[in-house]
Write a structure and sequence with these properties.
With 339 residues, the protein is mainly α. The protein folds into 3 domains: 127 residues, Arc Repressor Mutant, subunit A (Orthogonal Bundle), CATH 1.10.10.10; 94 residues, no CATH class; 90 residues, no CATH class. It contains 14 helices and 3 strands. A 3-stranded antiparallel beta sheet has the order 1-3-2.
Length: 339
């Protein structure tokens, strides 16, 4: 399988960001993954920089997932084995710790989600044990906010193995520290684990409209039989969450512009070096030509377009820089007629 180049990993803010997360959740839903592995992949996507890459040491990952460093190493290794993420770079950071630069392997994810090329899909067949898509999934609301198109296979409530313990893990993975209290409130309200999972799914689809606090309050207000996807039961978009997402987008755009400018400078430096090499080899021969010989060379080099180029010869019989560079190119050609 061809691994993507890091420059192809960036996902922009807004609808495309939400669409990418939908594809990721869809792909993960087709695999039998334990909660911690699934959350690692989503963590890489959700917390990554604007260019799609996440830099973390194993100690930082261990603290995030409340496990030992060796368990964090195994967790990353399992994600790499499943080809769900790629380790773009391995380097040392301050303190001597080795940090991993991780990114989503979008080629594999799109293949798993059924969005890749036929060859890519054939190369990695879907899991035989993948959870089938529910036929009774709630259709998308017409009033839903346009962050992401609804896809029933993204809904965790389609998983019959959903339990309260699993829901608690999901809430903690979404940054809700009081996950146990949230679960207890839902149980007292006689709300099912599947309904809470559906609320989490709708919350994920609308990121970054809300932060964890909005999800916490929405679950505590949940009632049996309500439509988890009814926008009227959800708060308005969180301005701070949107502002943070836009800030990440702006930083990504600035980084992209800086990288483009750096590439342009590199290309310019390479071109200057190439012309300097031509000048070193062919410059003396060009300088030895008098005005008539120079005009003859212009005619030989440019043919029917020579008239326009002749204007680049000064009154002193010297070529201006743009013409000089072009004539050096001509003299460097293996079949030029001037010796």
């Amino acid at each position: 399988m061809t691994r993507p180049h890091p420059s192809q990993l960036a996902i922009p803010f807004g609808a495309q960001h939400a669409e990418a997360r939908s594809t990721l959740v869809n792909a993960l839903g087709r695999l039998e993954l334990d909660y911690r592995l699934r959350e690692l992949v989503l963590y890489v996507h959700d917390v990554a920089r604007g260019d799609g890459r996440l830099v973390r040491t194993y100690n930082q990952l261990a603290a995030r997932f409340d496990c030992s460093r060796s368990a964090a190493i195994r967790l990353v290794g399992r994600a790499l084995e499943r080809e769900l993420i790629v380790k773009v770079e391995l380097r040392y950071v301050s303190g001597g710790q080795r940090a991993n630069e991780l990114a989503i392997n979008w080629a594999e994810v799109r293949s798993l989600a059924g969005l890749g090329s036929p060859a890519a899909v054939d190369a990695t067949p879907p899991s035989r044990d993948a959870t089938p898509q529910s036929r009774d999934a709630t259709p998308p609301s017409r009033d839903a906010t346009p962050y992401k198109e609804y896809n029933p296979s993204n809904n965790p409530s389609n998983n019959p193995s959903t339990t309260w313990a699993g829901v608690g893990d999901i809430l903690r993975g979404h940054g809700i520290a009081a996950a146990d209290a949230c679960v207890e409130a839902a149980r007292r309200a006689e709300v099912t684990p599947e309904h809470v999972a559906a609320l989490v799914s709708f919350y994920d689809e609308r990121r970054p409209a809300w932060g964890p606090g909005a999800l916490y309050q929405r679950i505590r207000r949940a009632t049996p039989g309500e439509d988890a996807r009814d926008p009227a039961t959800w708060p308005r978009a969180d301005p701070e969450a949107l502002a943070a997402a836009r800030l990440r987008h702006d930083k990504h755009e600035q980084r992209r512009r800086d990288e483009s400018a750096a590439l342009a400078r590199q290309a310019s430096a390479a071109e200057q070096a190439r012309l300097a090499a031509l000048e070193l080899v062919h410059g003396p021969a060009l300088d030895a030509l008098d005005r008539l010989e120079l005009l003859d060379l212009v005619d030989q080099a440019f043919g029917v377009e020579a008239t326009a180029w002749r204007r680049q010869v000064t009154g002193a019989g010297r070529p201006r820089q743009v013409l000089r560079d072009a004539l050096l190119e001509h003299l460097a050609a293996p079949d030029h007629p001037v010796t």
